Fold:
Amino acid sequence: MSEERENVIVTENLTRRFKKVTAVKGLNLTVRQGEVFGLVGPDGAGKTTTIRMLCTIMDPTEGSARVAGFDTVAESKQIKRRIGYMAQRFNLYDDLSVLENLDFFADVFQVPRRVRKRRKERLLQFARLAEFRQRRAAHLSGGMQKKLALACTLIHQPEIVFLDEPTTGVDPVSRREFWDILTELHLQGITIFVSTPYMDEAERCSRVGLMYRGRMIVYGAPDRIKGLVAGELLELRTANPRRAEEVIGQSEGVLETQTYGDLLRVFVDSVTRRQDSLQETLAAAGIEVIGLRQTRPRMEEAFISLIRRQMEGAKGQPAESER
Amino acid sequence: MLIRTLSLMRKEFLHILRDRRTLAVMFLMPIIQLVLMGYAATTDIEHLRTAVLDRDKSPASRELLDAYRASNYFELAFYVESEGEMEYLVDAGDARAGLIIPVGYGREVASGGQAQVAFVIDGSDPSVANTVLSASQSVGQAHSLRILERAAGIKPDDMPGVQVRPRVWYNPEMKTSNFMIPGIMGIILYFLTALFTAMAIVRERERGTIEQLIVTPIQPLELIVGKVVPYAFIAFFDVLEVLAIGVFWFGVPINGSLGLLLGLAVLFLITSLGIGIFISSAANTQQEAMLLTFLILMPSIFLGGFFFPIEAMPRWLQVFTYVIPLRYMLVVIRGIILKGVGITVLYEEVVAMMVFGTAIMLLAAIRFRKRLE
Amino acid sequence: MARNTQHATRVNNHAVQAISLTKKFGDFTAVDGVTFTIERGAIFGFLGPNGAGKTTTIRMLLGLLQPTSGEATVLGFDIVEQTAEIKKRIGYMSQRFSLYNDLTVDENLNFFGGTYGVRGQRLQQRKAYVLGMAGLQGRERELTKNLSGGWRQRLALGCAILHEPEMLFLDEPTAGVDPISRRDFWDLLYGLADEGRTVFVTTHYMDEAEHCHRLAFIQRGRLAALGSPEEIKTNKMRGQVLEIDCTAPEVAMGALRTAGLFDEVSLYGALIHVVAKGVEAHRPRIEAALREAGVDLRSMDIIAPSLEDVFIASVREQE
Structure:
């Protein structure tokens, strides 16, 4: 059934150059109706520029994009009516109350009077801001401000919502709540395009596009992306993970290692083949293995592995960070 | 301790040098202000356009007109034939004054009587009007005296009565620019210093860099000194700049000791720096700092004796001006430059400046410290 | 206990020891009886929502705020009486700002060195070391604002360790930095910890929290959890996480929510996570609910909770 859903966002070789820098290079992606699409990548990857082009705020230097079936350059007015956009530094009006902010945006989007009251009420409940309706935006916590900003973007019931790093700087609890709200939207059938530097948020998306330095490294469902990582993952718990890393780092079959606190995560070509030999090597070095299990790579590890692979492939040399 | 302070000062100089725009403002603004105000801030009135209605058209009336023409105050620009015309010219502002000589003026003068002429003055600008008033009177009276002397056949020096001989000390040409420019120096010292200091400190707070610094062994005192001293240098440089322009461009003579002037300028800087620091502890953004500086210093300019003499103000306001630091500095600057006096005469002002400087600095330092917490 | 400020005596050998640390602002209690110990050479992560008391606690430890009651030592020095001793021995990297953008790399290093009294020969040596560690040799005369995120973080760290501090306080040190640079950065931190230096990190990034040796969660002024990431995941997790892979997850969500069996029902892409105590026991009911909704179940497995799951669970429990 989902295969029949139409593509509401399609880009073709989307490129944007600034005076000194090319922020987005030849981006090709499609987003299906009703999906939660995550654009993931660190600062400077080109996420904000991409969103700006899709929201018709900025024109591409090369290539094109179609949103809701309309071209972003030639038919931007049609698009603007159908989308909601929450900018990274979303400017709420600090000295206006929650309700007043909502009213303002309702005016801007010309929401008809008769549906306004009901819609505002629903949004307040939805964003869990009902009891704070009179409070000035400046006196809301960071998390609540983001929720209000989201509510303001939804006042005109857009088909697609673009969110640019909506949870940056927000504590984990508020972040979880925000994503719960996004899930609600998703269940209502709204398409969500969200950009984030948080790798773990990628897990919550239907599909993910990993961006790095203006290019799309890979895109698809989170599980499929993790599957692209070479090797299988073994997680070891030892008293001295860094020593352990030194010892087995160059062992046969070991592709990559990474420490996390007291954990050592080892990518091997085959867990069944290497599990025992690694334990022996460690035992020989006097390192006790407290716990051991096979597990799945994290989004971050997948990202790093894929970037490295791409950079190696491009230059034929081992990848170095930003050098 | 010293090293940390020097470290901070060095960093501050680097910041200043790298910020081209602010650098330009800091050095160009005094120049521009000085040049603009130096030219605009004169209240000398010359060549006032005057309309003349000479109904008499006699040799005597022409003599009177010559007398007016000879004084530089009036330019007899319009010769009208009716009062209506004159009214129109004054209304329109083309003429600022008008002279009406009635019919029979010449006969009256010749017969030894008192001839009257009317002088119309545009009163809308009182400062101009006042000058016109007194000028018209003095020219008229001088001419009157000449007529009298001629009629009585006496030489001017033999006249009975009191002859007042004016001797103008200090600024004999009574050029207002000589008076204004030292005043402007004072204002620049006062205003710009406080402004730049306040903004520099607030900028640091806005960017969050202060937080980084207070976690280190740096003491609040070192922070203030390190931050403020570079601006003191710049302010001092501005003083020299302004002095140079005043002397070499405007021809303001320095009658007193230059060394004393600079020394007292440094003393005054302490006060303005203190005010700058104080404002920085009250402002949260650079905009606020700028507004606060304006708010606090604007009254000073009006009440400090720059434009308007303090003696002309109502008594209760005069008392108030004693707490305005600028007042003392203006006296000092004008005293040294125009009158060439020394510290013996100025000691009251010097003491006042020292008191202010210390008090404001202390207050500012305390508030700054408090604000850091 | 006599506090001898003349001779800088340490009271203990912990990196940090806080005992019932409390701070009140009028009626509002920002930090409420917080107690924890950090051993030297540990990387300690401090997590919590904004307004939970995180920043207030750090400010007290750094000597910027005085506690209302309770006491604490940093590197063995009392935070109230011996603040100067503490300041000399710690390095600090704040999130908002650490470096002066209009200065060059070299000028920044010189400034921070000067601030901590590192000069002459020693400064040259330390600068060489730091530039090497950060990989910035040859770039000393570049303006800081022209460095990209990852390099700037490394330089900031370098400036913070010029004076060889015993302890480092880092506030969101890798926010927005790309994953590769972040990994390199953490390698640097591990290196420092190996040298016996203690690292105190605050972060909103749960992935980053996993890098720490020990963690503390603070919520509403109180500690909600304290221990290593593993310990916290094991002890503090209320219930288990069951990952459900099925067709039509949107429909399934509704059905599972109505079932009312779980603490949480969340969508993760196309997968559903349900959280409950003894979730295994609910398997039959889950299968039934899904069947009723016309949804095909592909798989259903218990997965390890993420640190975020645990954090949320423990915070909700506190409420």
Chain C has eleven helices and 14 strands. Residues 179-194 of chain C form the longest helix (16 residues). Residues 237-318 of chain C form a domain with the Alpha-Beta Plaits fold (CATH 3.30.70.100). Residues 1-6 of chain C have pLDDT under 50 and may be disordered.
